Amino acid sequence: MSRKKNKQAENTIPAGYTLDYVSGRQVKETKKELVRQRVVRALIHEYGFSPEDMELDFSIGGRKKVDVAIFHHGKDHTIENLSRAVICRQEPNVGKNAMRIRDFEQAAKDLDEIETIMREVDAVQYGLWTNGLEFFFVEKEQKRFETKCNPIGDWPMAEESVGTKEVISDAHTRVADNEMLKITFRRCHNFIHGNEGMPKDAAFWQFLYLIFCKMHDENLRAKQRQAWQRRFWAGPREQFEPQGRKAIRVRIEELFTEVKKQYKNIFRGNEEITLSDRALAFIVSELAKYDFTRTDVDAKGVAYQELVGVNLRGDRGQYFTPRGVVKLVIEMLDPKETETLLDPACGTGGFLVATLGHMLKKFREEQNIQAGNENTTEFLNIHERLKEYAAANVFGTDFDPFLIRAAQMNMVLAGDGRGHIYNINSLEFPLGHLADLPSVKKEIPLASVDIIATNPPFGSDIPITDKHILEQYELAHSWEPDGEGGFRNTGVLKGSVAPEILFIERCIKWLKPGTGRMGIVLPDGVLGNPAAEYIRWWIMRETQVLASVDLPVEAFIAEANVNILTSLLFLRRKDDQEKHREALGRAEEYPVFMAVADKVGFDRRGNKLYKRTPDGEEIVEPKQHVERIRIGGRFVERTLTRSEKIEDNDLPVIAEKYREFLSEHDGRTPAKRSSPSRTHERPANKVASR
């Protein structure tokens, strides 16, 4: 075999294989293996175990094996040094439906497997049995004539013991691994829905009440510093004892009372935590282990959005925007700290939260601080700066009061409790009757916003027919060719108009003339249907086209369950002087960025896609990871290089190419020019080419 082929083989993974996170070697990709690798990653990044102290499929005699064996740090991998053992099983095939979470008694048969190992191997102190959705943590209690395996809420961190944490209010919380946080949110919701018998939407709100309590407790930590006493916690055994469960309820209800007083814009005051003591203790135990404030904004957003998509998907064209698309829009718009940003159809706040994540990254880069490596002062300063930015510049509106509430909660989870999320009808604005209308008219009147990022509701099955709304819009009227290559308004009001058409006009009118810019998700019909040519002409009259990005059907079908072709359109609003010059025939050509996304990282069923060779083998590349390993009660940071599969996703590439495009044009497309020329990454027959 040639050197070239050898190198290619080293950088690829045959179909049906994946990479072991401990050894870096190729292993068969089974459903059980996917669970195991997820657990291993969490043990390293969340709990602080060193990969060198782990071994997979460790034999303990005969046919018995431990799926993940963890040894005392730096010791030989012998049965005498085995401290913790993990048994993994494949994840149950339940899709996104609620799964009933078993208690220890109900899982006795499965737990017997791990408990047998713990009894037979003297050195093993802690055990874990998991199928990827259920996690049963066990601690061994050695008595004179009996060995007991007791349930505990969670494992301690590396090199710690549960016994020292009976009063766990000062115990170590940890930054959540992305996948594990998503699973934790699912487990909590499943417990409420599946075990308590609550409808999905009721379960969702009960879960969010507790999220609020958790965030409130963490926010008090930042304010009170040394005087702070943690209240959102569960002792290692509290959730399994009646008195312990009652103690948890007392702490949480006290917090919730404070939450309702502090967030009067979100809560009416009559909300109650109606969960049983058992369910409440379970949820608190699951959430208490994490430091949400330090956990990545994107990780929290992914976990939250998964629950929202299951519970709050509406029937009025409310299709929640896939996270990759949201991130692309925000990266291409690249908000500045001084600029206001609005989503007039904000839904659950995806674009708003992505904006906070974008700004947080900027703040860290400015100070050359790596996420997770900030000292306390740096961390607090950055997050206070983020809150100030959000309080001054981030706005969202939506017609659906339930989505407004969900968006407010999403912003609180992201680290901001003061985001301006308002319940109005954006298409009716500045008219209307909803209670938040005066605030919106004062804070973000028309022609005042720097940036709009939005995915409006669309579809001919949800038309706008209200005459007093339609009368506000030029595009709600009939148009006809003027014989000179343009169109003129006939003055005849249509009886109904698709909402996305009106949203285009409303968004443009909300932008600052001359400088305001927007990114909007639109169905392809608006940009390609011959009957919509007058709309495209109107857009060209009112704006400069900055960019157009075609999206594949997979972008929405997997995450939003919507089979529709869409595009992203980026526009800058022209001022009156520009439009006047153009009317006099003084238009000049300008470049437009155009791209087509073929892949978005997953297929129609939501399965992840990775780049492959022509032979079908998955390609891998080395990536550096900073891992915090807990040694002797202290975290030691080190950088490790791992081979990883490459996600087959065009969206990050498009964002990078757009930055290059702007750099070629001095950081911006030439302003004060009106006729587009065709500058593109891949051919696309869109507005800009007409």
Provide an overview of this structure:
With 690 residues, the chain is of the alpha/beta class. Among the domains are: 13-165, Alpha-Beta Complex (tt1808, chain A); 180-288; 456-609, Rossmann fold. Strand 14 (477-481) and strand 15 form a beta hairpin.
Descriptive terms for the model:
tt1808, chain A, 20 helices, Rossmann fold, alpha/beta, disordered C terminus, about 700 residues, disordered N terminus
Briefly note the CATH topology name of the domain at 456-609. Rossmann fold
Tally of individual helices: 20
Could you say which overall geometry the principal axes of the C-alpha atoms support? globular
Overall CATH architecture of the domain at 456-609: 3-Layer(aba) Sandwich
Question: Quick one: CATH class of the domain at 456-609?
Answer: Alpha Beta
CATH superfamily of the domain at 456-609: Vaccinia Virus protein VP39
Tell me about the largest β-sheet: 9 strands, mixed
Distance between the termini: 53 Å
Average pLDDT, to the nearest integer? 86
Count of strand segments: 22
